[in-house]
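Let us begin with a simple case.
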Amino acid sequence: MKNIVYIDMQMISDWDFLEGLQSETQEKWAVKSFVSNEGRTSSLSNILRYIKYFYYSFVIFLNRNKYDKIICWQAFYGIIYAFYCSIFRVQKKNYVIIQNLVYKAKGDKRSFIGNLYFKWLKYTINSGYIDLFVSASLTNCKYCAQVFDADINKFRFVPFSTEDMSVMPIHDENLSKKDYVLSIGRSNRDWEWLIESFRDSNYNLIIVCDELRYQNIPPNVEILNNVWGDDTYKYIKYCKCMIIPILIGSIASGDTVLVQGLSFSKPIIINRPSCLADDYIKDNETGLIVNKDKKELRNAIETLYTNDDLCRSLSKNARTDYLSNYTLLQYGKNIGKYAK
């Protein structure tokens, strides 16, 4: 029997996560890449994405007897795999870990689609085919266990990590001459609060989000719908600071962007309530935490532009925090503790 990690991205040679996982478990692990979650530029691409989720999960189901332990980096792969196991009533043979579980209601939970999605998730999460759910937030662990009436002992908080792209050669002459604040993301973002906070301000904002459409955009705000993957790193490198505006505080989101920003030594502003404020950032040490108030956000931005000592301190501490807690090697070791 073998162990396998299913990922939703292109495979990276000499992957630090795999090294950490194998080091901690003292076992060999294979990695299989199924890329589903690409740019969401249209309704058709969204439909295709979900078709891929179900197709690739069925491939995992068909190959289930080959593996003793299965880790699904893409949570949907593990959830749909468990769904197939349940409806076909097969014997449980694998120890299954699902990473990055996040629940956000599809529209109104009382609607047909929203209610169906909720019931489907609850049924599958409690099916008995999933052994452990790993979340990037302790708050989210408690939230999901309560919402789905699931065993809290099956949920574990493991801080998320990303590859250190700050060490790669990145250069963009035009961006290097710009003065801007950056916000990146897609899920669970309060774009209205962020954009309206910048309206009539003295600072420039660039938002990287392929799904965001906004009416009456202020002249000092630029929204980029066609930037994905590695192209985002140059925007991180040259920004003054980053803001992650979280919409619903109980939902785990923004952790990937946060950790990327820390790796690039960027001062980061986040709002409370949020899982990021609860589980990641120490106010005035590794970032700034504000209430969801326009004036507070503007004051935090002005502070970073005018207080050079604080800005340098936050930048240094951000990088130190990343190296200590959020490298992929450490993430692999952290996941490995639950995969022994």
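The second case is a distinct protein. As before, the sequence precedes its structure tokens.
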Amino acid sequence: MRNHILVLTCIIGCGGVSLQTRSLAAQESNYRQPAWASVSEADSGQIETLSTGYKRFLGHGQHELRVVAEAERLAQAQGFRPVESLESLSPGDRVYAINRGRAMILAVIGQNPLTAGSVLVASHIDTPRIELKANPLYESEGFALFQTTYYGGIKNYQWASVPLAMVGRIHRSDGSTLDITFGLDGEPYLVIPDLAPHVDRDYRERTQQDVLKGEELDPVVGSRPDADGSVTGMVESVLREEYGVSMEDFVSAQLVLVPALPPADVGFDASMIGGFGHDDLLCSFAALRALFDTHMPERTAMVYLAANEEVGSHNVMGARSTYFADTLLALQEMRSGQSVSLRDHRSAMVSVHAISADVTTGVHPTFADVQESTNAARLGAGVVLKRYGRGTDPTSEMLARVRRVLDDNDIPWQTHTYKVDVGGGFTLGTYLSDDGMDTVDIGIPILAMHSTWSLASKVDLWSLYRYFLASYAQ
């Protein structure tokens, strides 16, 4: 029976079992189908529009503070209002809450109560990068440099001889603040200089990760001495006179170094987007865009933009905190107009259909052997259903629901499992599951993930957006 399968259906209440047949052709899946092959001319225009918006969003993605500010601006343009500005909530209301300027939850209130279920896409907005230490400035061999430490999983050598910008915020002791975007708006760049091949013979035996060690990731920030012959003195005077910043202000600052190159199209066919921060601004943008295009859903639709994922989701901005649970409780009380019992709150929590959205590694055309080909994710093949195993997968029922949404909406998709004993990684899903939510890991593949300039496929971005939109409409 190659062309038919038997479907066993128990007819409850009729005292029997009926056998029905369905054609396999009617069950054709979009699993591992090339995404570009099914793109229409109309789709092509929408893919470019979505990609243009994403590149603009990615251009604000150097730090969580900038991401949240841009997400708030976009949300307000779509009719979202701060949740604290309202006294009650009704179906169709569009609201958001911000956690210390570095994390954010947005929601479109559904027709059903939250205890009847909701749909959440959770992603993170922090990226692997280099951070400044609290006392960063020092002088060596006639140069002023900054002491740094890395944040998240990076390959240190990739950060050498790359134009860098310094981004973040300084809080002064008098209560004033200063947002920093040095190197993004026409200012000079900072740079971690590489060692010339003429003189690096003694260093060539270093392993890949130690080509530049962590303590050697120090950018040059000046070389001109002041009247007293001090290069650091000149840097201090520039910071003080042009920016009103003292070196003591660095103690209460969050400043990071990021590549200063803007996102751009890649390839003769312009089929890819290159840029810094695809992990995980891509999923964050797709989730936001899908939420913006969701109106009057049956179940409340939500996006959670969390921070600190790349270092374990710690701190009050990370997914380990109670921020999501606290916000959901506030939405429940505003939706119902009364205090909510612990039982009802827990009922709402465990009824969340949670999608942990995070990108994954794609097959590299030169180093394909690092992946196990049967279970590898490929650029241009659509949404990735991540099956990492070892207790991290959701229930089979959850996986079946995800497949149904993908196939019912003709969304190309694929699976990804790393080679055994080779790779892997955690997502926000671990902490969502800890809170009782049935959670699935979804993303798209990225080439050169965690590098200073990685690649994503435009059609994969489009497929992910469509999956989020369809999930909100379940």
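The longest strand covers residues 129-140. The two ends are 33 Å apart (CA to CA).
Keep these points in mind for the review questions at the end of the chapter.
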